[in-house]
Amino acid sequence: MTVTEPSPGRPARRGGLWWHADFRRLWLGETVSQFGTMVSQLALPLVAILVLHASTWQVGVLVACETAAFVAVGLPAGAWVERMRFRWVLIVNDLVRAALLAWVPVAQLLGVLTIEQLYVIALATGVSTVFFDVAYQFYLPQLIDRELLVEGNAKLQASESLSQIAGPSLGGALIQALTAPYAVLVDAVSFLWSAVCVTRIEVRPPRPERSPDPNLLREIRDGLRFVLGNRILRAIAMCTSSANLFGSVISAVFYVLLARELRLSPGVIGLLTSTAAVGGLIGALVAGRFAAKVGQGPAIWMAIAVAGPCALVTPFVQRDWTLGLLAVAQIAMWMGIVVYNINQVSFRQALCPPGLLGRMNATMRFLVWGTMPFGALMGGLLGSTIGVRATLLAGAVGQSLTFLPVFLSPLRRMRELPSYAEPAGDGDPTASPLAPNGL
Fold first, then answer.
1. Which segments constitute the Major facilitator superfamily (MFS) profile domain (predicted)?
2. Residue 435 confidence (pLDDT)
3. What does the alpha-carbon distance between residue 386 and residue 263 come to, in Å, rounded to a whole number?
4. Are 152 and 26 in contact (CB under 8 A)?
5. The pTM is what?
6. Is the dihedral of CA 145, 146, 147, 153 positive or negative?
7. Residues with Cβ < 8 Å from 104, sequence gap 6 or more?
8. Out of 1-10, 182-191, 216-225, 376-385, which region has the weakest mean confidence (pLDDT)?
9. CA distance 146 to 206
């Protein structure tokens, strides 16, 4: 009898990934980091508004800087990371983000903090986040066996959902106790914790093998051709990118409304922000059953059609019972958004050939997230000219119409969506198994 050593990606004991030491380290590091990120996402705009007394335009620019990396490096990031050691990409970008965010309280203590520094920190942190997220998606399948991926992703998603629910409330309490600049230090420490946890992972995957003829431009072109050559994917890209555009218009002035015009405390602002995550959690629980009841295609357009008009509550909220109405609207809106996202992302993954999945995701991320900095700049400009509430109304009207591309596509009538099938012979691995213009 031959005794073999257990695979480094497989837990040695029963109980699934609870007994997988390396996964636990990754999971624990990412969970703490997610909570820290929720704190800084609330704290950075409040630093600009409450400490630096930034104008509405400047707050819009700051929000744009947070997402500008998706435009700058979103497309090539996937191809670049494929050539690197994923574990070191995670560690280095955790350390970079920790150092960047730690400068905020240090600069405030020294009395030299400026809005321009926040712009640079937001830009550089965004670039590091893009590379971290891409490497994270590649690293998990190397860390655990393929049959454990569903369990692993479920645990990671559960931590993310929990952080989105509890994180903003925690952030609001910390900002009230420590003030916004010093609350950012919590996120810096969380990234250090994540880096330490990843460093302690014992599995050391080898450097990925490079293609014999790597061509970055060709790889980017293949991803664009697959997405833009498919009628349904084009409709989804148009819907999601326009929703993110108008959502960023709203985000650019949302905290200005709550903190400056309504004069709400950071704790109340954090609590209101947390309600959105509650809706997201409900959406995650009902997405599959909703699609089974109404059909996969209708589930996509119905969910986003319901979510958009919920934003119409925001422009009219006052410091009274309408805050409760805003919380209910946020729950409903994010429930619809998550149902939409789960169903359209699942469709994209099922349709795409395995060898093109990374480039397809990078292309979609570029197309749908690339509108966010422009929306934030638009929100800041409108907020400083026509006013905060008028800007919120314009963004809400725009969001109410974003369902049209998917409603006017074949998705409206498709109870079951097409999926990829291996070609019988050698074929173009970047081509859709379905005729691009036939969808």
1. 232-439
2. 33
3. 20
4. no
5. 0.76
6. positive
7. 44, 47, 113, 117, 118, 121, 181, 184, 185
8. 1-10
9. 18
Distance CA 233, CA 226 (A): 9
Q: Which two tokens stand for residue 396?
A: 């809400």
What are 30-83's pLDDT values in tens digits?
A: 788 877 877 887 888 888 998 899 999 999 999 888 888 888 777 777 667 767
> Residue 96 has which token pair?
């970079």
Contacts with 300 (C-beta within 8 Å, 6 or more apart), sequence order: 236, 340, 343, 344, 347, 406, 411
**Residue where the block lists tokens 């420590």:** 178
pLDDT at residue 321 greater than cutoff 70: yes
| Residue 274: how many other CB atoms lie within 10 Å | 22
For residue 25, which of 91, 80, 79, 83 has the smallest C-alpha distance?
A: 91
pLDDT, mean of residues 154-180: 73
Q: Determine the length of the chain.
A: 439
Task: Tell the residue number behind the tokens 């837990």, with chain if given.
Answer: 11
Q: Are 74 and 365 in contact (CB under 8 A)?
A: yes
Tell me the C-alpha distance between 250 and 374, whole Å: 12
- What's the pLDDT tens digit per position in 364-390? 878 888 899 999 999 999 999 999 999
Tell me the one-letter amino acid at 117: Q
Q: How confident is the model at residue 360 (pLDDT cuts 50, 70, 90)?
A: confident
Q: Tell me, rounded to whole angstroms, the distance of Cα 11 from its chain centroid.
A: 29
What local confidence, expressed as pLDDT, does residue 89 receive?
A: 84
Q: Which of 3-7, 187-191, 329-333, 409-413 has the highest mean pLDDT?
A: 329-333
**Residue 243: what are its φ and ψ, rounded to 5°?**
-65, -40
Please tell me the distance from the alpha carbon of residue 228 to that of residue 363, in angstroms, as a whole number. Answer: 9
Backbone dihedral region for residue 111 (phi beyond 0: left; psi -120 to 50: alpha; all else: beta): left
Q: Do the beta carbons of residue 290 and residue 299 sit within 8 Å?
A: yes
Q: Copy the structure tokens of residue 179.
A: 């003030």
